[in-house]
Amino acid sequence: MNRTESSMDAGSASSKPSAAAAIEALLVKIIRINRAMFSRDPRFFDIVVAAGENHWDVLDKFNASINAHLVEIVQDGMESGEYRKQDTASAAAFLAASLRASTHPLLIRQFGFRNALRRARDQVRLLQRALA
Amino acid sequence: MRTTTASRRDATRSCILEKADQLFRQFGFSKTTVTDIAGELAMSPANIYKFFPSKDAIVEASAANDMAKLKAQLLDIAEGPGSAAERIEALVVAMVRRYLDTFQNEKQFFKLIVASVEHDWPSLRQFRKDLHAIAADIIRSGIDNGEFAQAELPATAVTFMDCLLSVTHPLLLRELAATDAEAKARAQVAFLLRALR
Fold first, then answer.
1. I need a surface site. Which of A35, B54, B106, B143 has the fewest CB within 10 A?
2. Tens of pLDDT along B99-137?
3. A49 close to B (CB below 8 A)
4. Which of B120, B166, B195 sits opposite A129 (nearest CB)?
């Protein structure tokens, strides 16, 4: 039983995506959610503008949830050797700030949904070099 | 003779634009009418339409004018002294200061910037292209002097500037206004420069 559990763990560990792939997957998910929101509600742009202008909690919570994911990804990346050892929280914060073009609803819309995925991949490639 | 007529026309156009810009900053572009602009210049609205086909055209020209001034400032930095890394940082800080100043001190004009983003005006698209070209020139000079590793340009410059949008995009920067945006921008640039070395 223990051996089975170990081999399952090993199996899941070996199939765990790289940090770069995990970041890309997160961005794809965010871009798709945003595309759905904008097509569902034409007023979504105004709502997001107001949220930014008035510092709504919802915006902070949204950013905090992205940051939390990135902290985990950076931690995993350092453990696997994909990234150099560094302060996890600050590396994740820089990563989050750098990825705003691909996570902020207004920017995703401004640059177009089709372009958003390509831009996100380009960003991940550049940021790998900043973190390695 | 033709040159004189053209230059007189340019002068009148500039005069209209200057007055419109002043009114947009004072009262906001949505509350300023072509009649207001014409009245301030002691001319008829019909005369204004000889130079601009619509109020929207004046509004967009005003935004384009503002972006041209920022572009000139960024070009000065790009062509100025300092290492490539220092010039990239100075360029980003100049954008942060410019947008923060507009957001904090010229709320009405900031609304015009928001509109340019919302409707993705051609002038804004052109400014983005110009910005990417300026950043690419700085990075190229850094590659040439051995400061940066070889990189594909302008693609790397576009992505590099994309990674700085949290501090250089007017709408996002506004979310940072309460904090020390300039310090954040400098730290962000330092982090990203590692990717170029």
1. B54
2. 999 988 998 999 898 888 878 899 999 999 999 999 999
3. yes
4. B195
